[in-house]
């Protein structure tokens, strides 16, 4: 190592950027791979799990890490591009050991909330210390905490039946939903469900939307029906409809009956359309405004951080009622047009309505052609009487255009690529 730091707590480096010698970022640290041998022997650090471009997770041997000083992780510049696959003898320190219940020297219980690693005189890295919260899980973060040596605690070498995930989730708090979904896919089924149990409904809904359908069905199937319906309510109606469409009819109907009536009505309407049509892809919750709304009001609505960028790219102007299906659809106003006019201007003065908008039965190809032809990231979907039914966004179109199972595929190297690539220098 070019720098020899002292004790390093893993919570301080997980999520940190990994750089090559030239100072260019090659990925982010997601976990530390260790070999847990016994309760008395400190686990040896084998390497790091690094998430590189395309959310692929690769293994970086600890011998190729030249610096961990001040949280800066620097490599020799060489990364193996093969996807990391955990071996039976390996343990993921962050994902598997955090939240483990252990027995302390005085016989009481505690919960692991962090681990520390140190380098010995031979320059090998070991997990040296365990940060523990006394009192077990029932005290949460309010219990006293202490840092003990690895061999002072018992319970880290055996799998725990009901391990929590509070501290693990703390390391994932700033991850995007797509990245958290990717992390869940790599966890063993038992650990995955422990994480799912502790995610709040809104966060779980966001993650489910980023998972392959088979994983969505698996997770929803083990949730209590009441909670499953709450999570479906938090999902975008089109994603909830896609998921329910994968379930047996009786199960889907039971969950719809438990959902909030207004949300269930939107989902039921979407389920009537074929999957690869405008109706099957649209969301029923675009930003809808009356013609007498001002540009200031429109900007305030699309400023909502919960809106995805494609839905925030325009507002849809309709006569009341303003919930889909709306009154007469008058047109759209692009975000850029809102920025060019005085805040007091009415949206009805700048609506754009000179395109033959798609009907709900329009094909996927037709919708994709319209988005490409008019350089748009979203389109209104109207019925034969020009009532707004919903909006199709480009992310949903891409979801259907990409090969089936694309969420499960990593970006593979070209067939002629070497198994190891030099990033720089």
TrEMBL record:
Source organism of this protein record: Aeromicrobium ginsengisoli
Lineage: Bacteria, Bacillati, Actinomycetota, Actinomycetes, Propionibacteriales
Residue span, CBS domain: 282-348, 351-408
GO MF annotations in UniProt: magnesium ion transmembrane transporter activity
Matches recorded under InterPro entries: CBS_dom, CBS_dom_sf, Mg_transptr_MgtE_intracell_dom, MgtE_N_sf, MgtE_transporter, PRC-brl_dom, PRC_barrel-like_sf, SH3_actinomycetes
GO cellular component terms given for this protein: membrane
CDD domains: CBS_pair_Mg_transporter
Protein's name according to its UniProt entry: Magnesium transporter
Gene3D superfamilies attached to this UniProt entry: CBS-domain, MgtE N-terminal domain-like
Residue segments, region Disordered: 406-425
One Pfam assignment: MgtE_N
Keywords, ordered alphabetically: CBS domain
SMART domains: MgtE_N
UniProt key word Cytoplasm: no
């Amino acid at each position: 190592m070019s720098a020899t730091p002292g004790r390093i707590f893993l919570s301080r480096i997980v999520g940190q950027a990994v750089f090559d010698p030239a100072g260019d970022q090659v990925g982010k640290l997601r976990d530390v791979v260790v070999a847990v041998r016994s309760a008395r022997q400190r686990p040896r650090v084998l390497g790091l799990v690094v998430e590189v471009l395309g959310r692929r997770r690769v293994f970086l041997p600890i011998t190729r890490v030249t610096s961990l000083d001040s949280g800066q992780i620097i490599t020799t510049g060489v990364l193996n591009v093969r996807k990391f696959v955990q071996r039976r003898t390996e343990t993921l320190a962050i994902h598997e050991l955090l939240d483990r219940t252990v027995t302390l020297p005085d016989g009481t219980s505690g919960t692991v909330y962090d681990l520390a690693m140190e380098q010995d005189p031979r320059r090998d890295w070991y997990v040296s210390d365990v940060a523990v919260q006394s009192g077990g899980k029932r005290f949460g973060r309010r219990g006293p905490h202490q840092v003990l040596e690895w061999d002072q605690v018992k319970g880290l070498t055996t799998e725990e039946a009901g391990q929590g995930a509070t501290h693990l989730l703390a390391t994932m708090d700033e991850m995007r939903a797509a990245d958290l979904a990717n992390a869940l896919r790599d966890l063993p089924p038992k650990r995955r469900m422990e994480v799912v149990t502790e995610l709040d409904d809104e966060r779980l809904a966001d993650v489910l939307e980023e998972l392959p359908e088979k994983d969505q069905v698996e997770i929803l199937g083990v949730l209590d029906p009441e909670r499953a319906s709450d999570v479906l309510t938090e999902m975008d109606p089109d994603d909830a409809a896609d998921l329910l469409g994968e379930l047996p009819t009786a199960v889907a109907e039971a969950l719809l009956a438990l959902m909030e009536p207004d949300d269930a009505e939107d989902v039921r309407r979407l389920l009537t359309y074929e999957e690869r049509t405008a109706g099957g892809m649209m969301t029923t919750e675009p930003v809808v405004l009356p013609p007498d709304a001002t540009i200031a009001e429109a900007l305030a609505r699309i400023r909502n951080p919960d809106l995805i960028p494609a839905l925030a790219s325009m507002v849809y102007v309709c006569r009341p009622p303003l919930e889909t299906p709306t009154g007469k659809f008058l047109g759209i106003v692009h975000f850029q047009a809102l920025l060019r006019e005085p805040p007091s201007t009415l949206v009805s003065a700048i609506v754009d309505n000179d395109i033959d908008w798609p009907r709900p039965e329009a094909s996927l190809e037709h919708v994709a052609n319209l988005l490409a032809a008019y350089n748009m990231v979203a389109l209104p979907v109207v019925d034969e009487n020009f009532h707004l039914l919903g909006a199709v966004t480009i992310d949903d179109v891409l979801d259907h255009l990409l090969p089936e199972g694309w969420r499960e595929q990593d970006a593979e190297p070209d067939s002629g690529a070497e198994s190891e690539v030099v990033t720089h220098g």
